[in-house]
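Memo to structure team: turn this sequence into structure tokens by end of day. - J.P.
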Amino acid sequence: MLTPEQCESYQRNGYLLVPDLFSKEQLAPALEVAEQNAYGKSHEEFNAEIDAHPEIAETLIRPKGRRSFGGPRAEFHDIPTGIDAIDQTIEHEPFLDALSQLLDTPDMHYHHGFVYARSGRLDRGTPREPWQGFHIDWAKPLLPPHPEWQRYGHIQAWVYLTDNDADCAPVRVLPGAHSKMSELIRDPLGTEHASYRFDDIRKLPYKFEPVTATGKTGTVLFYSSHTPHSAQAFTNPRKQRAVLFYAVGRRDTSTWTLTEKRDIQERGRLRPFLTKTTARARSLFGWPNPGDDFYTPETLNLIKNAYPEMDLSPYKEHRA
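Reply from structure team:
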């Protein structure tokens, strides 16, 4: 169980690092499977392969499709995978207890999970400046983040299969930004990726100091879906970052906090459709029905900002 101090830290900062929630021995079989899936061999053997044949790196940098989450040669990335060494990780009772405490409910809902392996030998396209790349993931149902971040958000949990030291591209988070999202959002659906991105955190109305989420094998990083985070480049290209990534929310609000990784083309088509369609049809895509407590004057303003051409009268009429 988490301590009261840990729970208070999560409430204040929007993230929490919990060391030794899993043992290294417990995760060793999962790491072996993740590496075989990512590279077709161990990561050490993969480094030796690139040393011997550096020309193959370019062909492996951008594999086709979403399987790239799992690594350059991945055959799968979604969890459950059908392989017990990975799938049984979510059965770990201390892990479930921590999720339940941070969500403030015993009734949870599994959104999605990924096996995620990244090698420094193939790392490209990550932000090079410390103020770049911060975003929150918000692919479905394309509603602006709600001011009640704990109830209408979900938790993203990274189980560290390897040591995530400072030289192997650990994720960075912005402590405290989770509770100010409604003030920070200017162009809520600012990119075709349907994520909320901040091109330069120095220009935000509040000053946030990024924290680098380092940790040893067995550490779990929990952060709110409202917490901006950013990748960074490897400084040691011979290292990797291997994690199991889970998104878990409250069951009572799962309909509109549920997220999934839609492909870019689908997300690009969905936004215009949601703008023009009816409230009833919109509810099929996770939007609460008119009259739901979700719709407050503040959230209606956020939706208007995100969808300037949307007719919000059905939602306003039920508040009258």
